[in-house]
Fold each of these.
Amino acid sequence: MSTNTQAVTTGAPTEAPPGRKAELSEGARAERRLGFMLIAPAVIVMLAVTAYPIVYAIYLSLERYNLAQPQDTKFIGFANYGAVLSSSYWWQALEVTVIITVFSVAITLVLGMLLAFVLHRTIFTRGLVRTVSLIPYGIVTVAAAYSWQYAWTPSQGYLSAAFNNSAPLTSQVEAIIVIIVAEIWKTTPFMGLLLLAGLSLVPEDLLKAAKVDGATAWQRFTKIMLPLMKPAILVALLFRTLDSFRIFDNIFILTQGSHGTGSVSILGYDNLFNALNLGIGSTISILIFICVAIIAVIFILGFGTAAPGSDIGRR
Amino acid sequence: MATYTPRQAAGWATANLVVVVLALIPVLWLVSLSFKTPAAVLDPSLWPAAWTGGNYGGILTSSQFLRPLLNSIGIGLISTLISVVLASMAAYAVARLRFPGKSVLIGMALLIAMFPLIALVTPLFTIERALGLFNTWPGLIIPYVAFGLPLGIYTLSAFFREIPWELEKAAKVDGATPFQAFIRVIAPLAAPGMVTTAILVFLACWNDFLLAISFTSTIASRTAPAAMQYFSGGSVFTVPTGPIAAAAVVITIPIIIFVLFFQRRIVAGLTSGAVKG
């Protein structure tokens, strides 16, 4: 609560509009002033928790700084970046992260589309199906991850028992598959609901007309639905890709990153809390930030994804 | 509306059943584990061979779980309250007022919503230690508010655009200032959107794990998801599987209640900011 009031009192005056726009009417100026006052607290909190730390992380990433040897702290330029980028740990973590992201997002897209169709076409039990499918979305990731972990524990879990008492979490490829399955289970409802919203924008008459003209179900899907749903699909993909790239909870519970299953987020966490290396940890943070920025730019420039919310206020 | 042949109806019914089963089995497995006796845990069947309430009794009398549960509720509620109030103010400005820099605000919110959290953990850890915020409630509330705000600003500005704004004009004609028009007329109309936003923000705080394990060190501020891993090897519990499963079920119950009562609102909130025609 203290941050709230503090932000309001310190923030509002500095954000006041400049007085040079003399041509603005009294009402317009009052509106501007109110606008700035209303957004100031939110802007200050968001900047304080994200922008400032990122700048600080850039600074830390240029230092040799280990909490175990604080007296040895020293500015070393880009040496940390050299160390991380020439380390096989970074590249393996990046590879694992990319594999998990690509597979989980691609499969979630297909399953989410199927779920959207089921929710769209179901008449009698739509409420029930929608309620139930929201549970994976809402459940605490850690709770779900424990469920998967125990399910795959040999001589204890139902899935392990169903697969010949196997122990998939102890081998790299199988553990990554289990992690991907856990991700898919958790995120398919979110994808399905976003796609359902896009699906409801497709006019039913258009589909009927196409059917009368002899279009097959597949043609109706690819020629009518997909083009109309493209904005919804791209936004959902952008959200899911960036979200999946920062995967942490599932891996932390399922494998702790052992057997070569650690993502870049796990690597960053380990460098901070196990190695206590703030310099290297910050370097990894900055590199992840750059990766995420690249993904966002590819989506927005390459696929023409409209930034969600970009049309706010235009209507 | 649409009518189906029996064959089609059977097909959709099967699809529904598959969805329900796939969504529920991992949850039911947790429930089953939470009622198994330590010996029965070693039996992989979904139906417990021997039932016990001991796992729940154990965690619900242990401060190792109760205190984190209290932290989760308190930190979640306070973060949600602050986020919704600040986001409502900003979303009102975005939806209704003319002022420069609006697109910058929206762009910034998008950037933060998609931010790789781990990139902030190292610098925030250092900053929080320096400010004495490490392992305190505010140490988690402040970042939760910051990450609740983009979600709140999106969802609320979508809701605010649907409000009949003639009422606001009428209030102004009657002599209300813009601020009075906001508090007296618009805020009550905006309440449903604010409830939706509050649910989504609370779920996000309730769900967080990375920040919770990074910025806490004792049960003084550790939240429930972060506390569960410390059950293992504790002398209180012989086998941690049952207690962890019981704790997982306990922290899932609020989610199920929210979903049952507010499913329409949650769906509306999830899709409002992201998909527009």
Amino acid sequence: MKKLVLTVDDSAAIREMLAYVLKSAGHRVIEAEDGMDGLQKALGNQVDLVITDQSMPKMDGITLVKALRALPQYQRVPILLLTTESSDSMKEEGRSAGATGWLVKPFDPNKLIEVVEKVTR
Amino acid sequence: MPRTNRPGAPAAVDLTRFLPMFFQETEDHLATMEGYLLRLDLRSPDLEALNSIFRAAHSVKGNSTIFGATRLADVMHRIETILDHIRKEELQPTHNVISLLLEACDTVREELRCLKDAADADPTALQAMYERLTQLAQSDAAPPATLHEAAAPATRRSARFRIEVHLPEGKDITALPLAELYAELGTLGRVEDVQASGGASSAPALSLFLLTPERQQVVRAKLVSLLGTHNVRVERQDARPRPALPAGTALPARATSTGSAAYGLFPQEHSSIGPYDRSVGSVTQTGVLDSSALGRRSMDHDPSGSASGRRATDRGYFDRSSIRVDVAKVDRLLNLVGELVIAQSMLTEATQRSGAGQDAGLRDSVAYVGRQTRDLQEAVMGIRLLPLDFLFSRMPRLVRDLAHKLGKDVELVMHGGDAELDKELIEKLGDPLMHLVRNSLDHGIELPALREAAGKSRRGSIQLRAVHQGGGILVEVEDDGAGFDREKILRKAEERGLRVHPGMSDEEVWQFVFAPGFTTAEEVSDVSGRGVGMDVVKRNIGALSGHVDVRSSRGGGTTIAMRLPLTLAILDGMIVEIGGESFIVPLSFISEAFLPQPGQIKSITSGPQVVQVRESYVPLLDLEPLLHIRREAARPQAGIAIVVEADGRRAALAVERLLGQQQVVIKSLEANYRRIPGIAGATVLGNGRVALILDVNALMRAGLAPMKGVETLEALQG
């Protein structure tokens, strides 16, 4: 099943790389450059998956997760946090905000496809 | 991507092509860090500024792991730790702390350059920086008590507001215009920690924190207009909050990832995720979240709005609407268009000559091709234009470091950095500009005590200005320092054997500072004052077909103005005939042309003839000997005088005829033949013949040189 994925990252390079990998797996991609932009785009399009960076201007990733989870239509949509480190404090913060999981940067294209398929099944 | 493209990845997924983007972004992040560090108010640092530095540092760290540069990531991690200490007020951001962070940026930039070029970096530099940062990160530098008692800065700083939105009983969060609310919040500032409560009537339906420079009334008014008076509560948090780290920037216990799993999923207990009963999901159909409303909203109220300037610099040239192209490709395109322009002017001339111009259809078509060619040329040249900010952005750091070294207090003000000019000019303008700023700081701006004694403010000011002017650009460096000392310059000039006389105008006296090796500095500092400089500035600007002008007043400061063309590819020229040959005089040098009457030309004992131009006399340069043109006996004397201005001096060029005015494509003689003194380049005219472009600066130096006993251009070029 091809999905509509919202990628949120202030780095255009990361966004392009995500889009490249996701599109190569046949998914459609909407890009947003910070949490605020992501929230607006999530409100404008019902997406199947959100992949978001953590540290961003305007609104960070954890806040975006909380804001999305506050919306009825995004309660059950999977959200993956992109992170440069897989520390316990990060995991705890992500979990309590309501994220579905985390993905370490730099990511392996195969792992990215794998986790996307796992959470959108 | 060397680390991620493991065997087993589909062959099509090659991520290495993204590397150049990451390098560029990392450089942009470093520039962002540097920019904020330089602007940071040391007595009372703005929290949002610190957060921006932190985010940039974090991104550099993240990108370093993408390059596989773990040592670089370690250095960035130390920087994060220090920034975190500053943010938590555990460390005072002194001048030395900021200097170390700036130095760290330099080290990281150098390391990146080596990574990018696959060159060997100096491993000790990174290690030494790591150790210095570690030392600072671990020091227990207690913040002095005075830190917060410092006078409030003039600029408004960000405050943190807690915003609560309450709902009438029986309504849930979907009754709120959320899209519009977030759009509004986005224009105000940064949102943190959004919380929604399910149905409990006592708790707010939505609560969040907003970090914004706006006043409480403004924030409240905007929200009330959206949500109504009774539903909103805006509460200012204490003036200097010590918030938890913004989510997502929390420092991990360990420096870098330990190479564990690439991803992970949290246990899916929905009770711990959202506060909602799933049954409310259907309420989305109410239309509150109507996407067309959202679209309208974002159109009238683009959230990027006021912040667009900052965002543009934050993200450098990585807008998705832009592409990166090799300069060589652009140059090839420019060259081809140049040839096309020449071909087009040949076509026009051939049409006229052959009489085919009588055919109205052909004439119109040729004219149409001409217009399109010029538009195309302009468009292609536009590709090479870069904003002056490329150069200006280096200056704050230079001024900061140098002012500190010299014990001076200087404010740098920059205007017009968005003015664009050709890449080549930008590159060649860099050194002269830096030199002038350095000079202003070293020689212009006085020490604070001296300034005070002279009745000036302790803090000096250096202004950098750029403005488009008559098809070119004017770049000025102005300081409010001591100004030039006329007597001292005259004395030094005399000591150096230059011709001086007391009646010289200030403009003439100021020209001495451009003489090679000229300096008035009593001691040679290691900043400037070695006497190499101003002459080089002038020579470099002259090589770009530019002029340098000086204005200065004793005690009032000095302004150095550089006038430059926007491009080196074309110029507006006057085609003139000298000795039967066609030459081009750049229009930017010409102030007037006239037919001198016999009585207007006078001979003086030393030097060239002079010609009367209204009230004054200017030297009349005979170009034939200067350009080694053989005079034909039967040819009449030069008939027209073209008055040119360069470097604050005027002279008249004697030419036989004016053949017309034309925009010409400049071809480098150096690249295609060799350098010829007095000639700036060549072009191909519409009749297919080559015409040489005169180097007015050099000709004036040579033509006026006999006064100093220098006979030929060649002697001057050396």
Amino acid sequence: MSTVITEPGVATVLPSAPADIASTSDATMRTQMRVLLDLAGLSVSEEDFEGMTKSFITARENAELVFSVEAARYEVPAMNFRAKL
Amino acid sequence: MSTPQFLTIKDAAAALRDGTTTSVQLTEGILARANALNDTLGAYVVITDDAALAQAAAADADFAAGIDLGPLQGIPLAIKDIIAMKGAPTTANSHVLDPAWGEGTDAPVVERLRAAGAVFVGKSTTSEFALGMPDDEKRFPIPHNPWNVEHTAAGSSSGTGIAVSAGLALGGLGTDTGGSVRGPAAVNGHTGLKVTFGRVPKSGVVPLSWTLDSIGPMARSAWDCALMLEVMAGYDPTDPSAAQVAVPKYSEALTGDISDIKMALPMPYFFDHEMLDPEMRTAVLAAVDVMTGLGATKTETELKYSEEAKDANYLILVAEAYAYHRDNLQKRWSDYGRFTRPSLARGALFTAADLSQAQRFRTKYSMDVAALFLEHDVIVTPSAAFPAERSNAMSVSKRLLQPSYTGHWNLTGLPAIAIPVGFTESGLPLSMQIIGKPFAEETVLRVADAYQRATDFHLQVPQTDALETTDSVVMA
């Protein structure tokens, strides 16, 4: 965890690196989720939040799986951008 | 002539020309069924009776005047309700979308179908913004599978899938970002084609994920999908991702001959996953045997990183969808459906690096698939790991843990068709997916059509007489 100033006079606890999220305790994970949702300006109801926590760990683990593909390490993103006037 | 509402487009086009029926008669029959069954099946958000009958009358008048606009003239179609269509609102099945969105306009793909003389039955049900799940807390129809109403009709093009299956349209439009054409086609027992990215212009469609979205035809047969695609495909300057690639006469490629076709079967993950339904696996492998019997050859092979490909597709989809919806999520959280809003908000929980990595992985996986196509013409897989699930057993978290076989081809931008290959013991449709090289819809359709000439699973229809009183399934 690290603390940064996101607004004048407001200190916000930021989540650790994504790799840590899936392995953290339930309480820590919930804190991280709340911070991320707050930073995004989303007022999530308690019921919705509870539902999201159930799938969050799986979703994070799935995202980590994409990072685990060594063969993709030196690929460039499949974005299609061309500079033009 | 079999029941007109269950005709293929190809046969209906012939019937309209030999005087067996008229478009008005055909459309009246379709409208009667749609109105009678919509409360039970939830196929349409709105049924445009008057406009449909006017279009049908115009089609008949053209026939009488010797004007033939092609095989879609006078054919009743369903238009997914995230696609703009003149004369009906576009809701995306959401209270959030501005009611004026797309008002009074046809999306280019709808404009093309209209110019070809098609008849629009109405706007068909979609999962909210092509992402959520049916939500009985909102005022939109709840889609039900016509083979068993307690089971899902899948999504997000649920309404078009139901309509084609139950004889509430002869074909229609779906959109596909991770399987939303092929999933409903698979569980509702008909054919659905996800086209090459850029093959069909997608302006006039509420976006879900700009780099994954596509519009595809859904119909009873591969031949019908070919007829629709001939009209739908082609460049349009209003869509920056539309490809400037010539549109072939797809139906002319459907020769029935697949003796030159080399099929790749990626066994790990797609056939050997521990969660793959055994009936699905058996049916798809039996279908492969039919195709080898027709002269195609098969090779069992491997496509590495297919588990990760599913996750990469999901990540890109959620990130792009969240970017589109963030402002409205901040201001109108509770106006979104209870399944949609957390799905979209999940995009806030991924990082920019997650998205970049998914796009890097996309490059790698696309190259691996391309390598497979150096030696093969098509890849064959099940369309889904399971037949239609019970609706009350579905959940987002469960879905994240399950294998999925469709998003891979959105990630790689390739054409992929889902076709029926049998039924479970309990009477639910089973489906095979055939994937082709970029812009090789002709090949994909040719293989699917050859299989459908040898079988009749795509012509089976659900028994709808008893739908309102029982969930039992009777195969016609």
Amino acid sequence: MSASSQEVATRNGVFVRAAIYVLLILFAVYYLLPLYVMVVNSLKPLDEIRQGNMLALPREWTLAPWASAWSTAQIGVSPTGLKPYFLNSVLMVVPAVAISTILGALNGYVLTKWRFRGDTIVFGMMLLACFIPFQIVLIPSARILGLLGLAGTVSGLVLIHAIYGLGFTTLFFRNYYEAFPTELIRAAQIDGASFFQIFRRILLPSSGPIIVVTVIWQFTNIWNDFLFGSSFSSVDSIPITVALNNLVNSSTGVKEYNVHFAGAILAALPTLIVYIVSGRYFVRGLMAGAVKG
Amino acid sequence: MPFLEIDNLEKSFGSARILKGVSLEIEEGGFLVLVGPSGCGKSTLLNTIAGLESITGGEIRINGRRVNELHPSKRDIAMVFQSYALYPHMTVAQNIGFGMEIRGVPKAERDKAIAEVAQLLQIGHLLERKPRQLSGGQRQRVAMGRALVRKPQVFLFDEPLSNLDAKLRIDMRTEIKRLHQRMGTTIVYVTHDQIEAMTLATKIAVLKDGTLQQFGTPAEIYNNPANTFVADFMGSPAMNLIPATIASDGPSLAVVMEREAREPIRLPLPSPPASLSAFRDKKVVFGVRPEALTDLEGADRNADAIATAHCHIEVVEPAGSDTFAVTNLGGKGVVARLRADAQIQPGTDAPLAFNLSKAVFFDPTTEQRIV
């Protein structure tokens, strides 16, 4: 009796498991389909796309759309491809991520280990930067950039992104350091370590997971930003997201969909790589604050 | 001349006064234990000595030098933390050497000092390990090694044994005492464990709610507690504090304790404290430690004032080395400590010997001792 009911239970278990897998596979296909369409069509000549099936594999494989998107496609008025704008984005993202991460770490360190009167108020105000709709700050920011002489430059974009990233990076590091044992800081103080020595020698070596989380977060956000990029850039500081838009919207000549697809993938590639390389730390880092050890 | 002096120390967080004018001092090579229940301010006091927390008033002097304004690293102290506070990403050797590294001591000299300390604490084979690869006792040793290597004027210990299991705690306690005897460095040690306080200290400071209750040698604290709090806190099982009345006994005095459904016990006092006569016919708290209340054979033969009374035994608790018997006096459970093989049955009456030369009296309103 009990043996047979157990058998039923096992069979039910198998059935449920199978159902779960089928569902998961369906969702995976659903999510991956756009990427598939983009990759497949970026490797086709334009004729094949015009003729019909977006889902079909290319009959004739070609890298020409990629080459075109990278170096010869018409962006706005000049046929430069995405290359210079890709470079602009790199020049913008790297310093902006570095600055906002380092400052966020310092903020987190001060807000948890060197507490001062009103620190929670300061932290609360910094959190505003996470929730404020950026459209609100466009005009004041433009004014400030103008005053600083940074309007329309990559440095200006770096500054804006570093500042508006600070809210999130501070939040991440503050929550991470909140769980960091204060006795370690005190031990280091007695050992004679200075403010920055404690930060560099004690805190940073234990911050690996949260640094990864912050870098991924900041990199993705800043790389993908369109609003600031389109508002504050001039011809020679346009980031890749804006350039991609210009590529797709170029009104001259035929619409080269295969080039557009290749360009879109090129624009998305760095965030994809960052996530693939360090994604597992991302999950681990997000968990680190919740479960100790 | 006192080596570490704490003079009228005040510490407030906002409107909350944590330390209310504490004054202490310890001679060079002394072992000062700060003891008290949690929240009494003992750890705060230690942190102010270390310089990890600022003080609101008063003065701290080490070897005659005022250190109020000095950074922790400049006070020539070392501290062992409750959680050990070992740097998790450094090896044992790096942990011990970190302070020297910060001070710019050359590598060769550092290695020599680390090796010395490692040998002293028998952790030489652990030097290349990370803290997470060590057991609790080993971490404890490394934490002490990090303190020892500085050769400070004062060691500060913040409940260093509270994270160890019972057996290891006793071993490490002995170890700390041995180290202290060997090095002869002044130590300030915080604990909430009164047995640790008794066994380690040359001087004990009992704190409660930020005020110093009593400061003295372990024997003074144990035998002559200044008030009922100290009497109750120090000693295990705790001192029996029995509500009683003082009555005249010819020219002298007697203590009278009520009992349930029986005649009160009346014990004549051969040498009462001088002020006790003011309490004639008034209520007092009669304090007698369990070991001063025992079976007739177990009573101290050298004591000059033994009084015997028949008491109703309610509970008997054999504990191996002793047998504890609980009776009821003055409406409270009273613990007597008998010899291990004392023949005693619960529910019967048995004669108990009160060692009155060890008894103390407290004023029930002020809770201060009557001397």
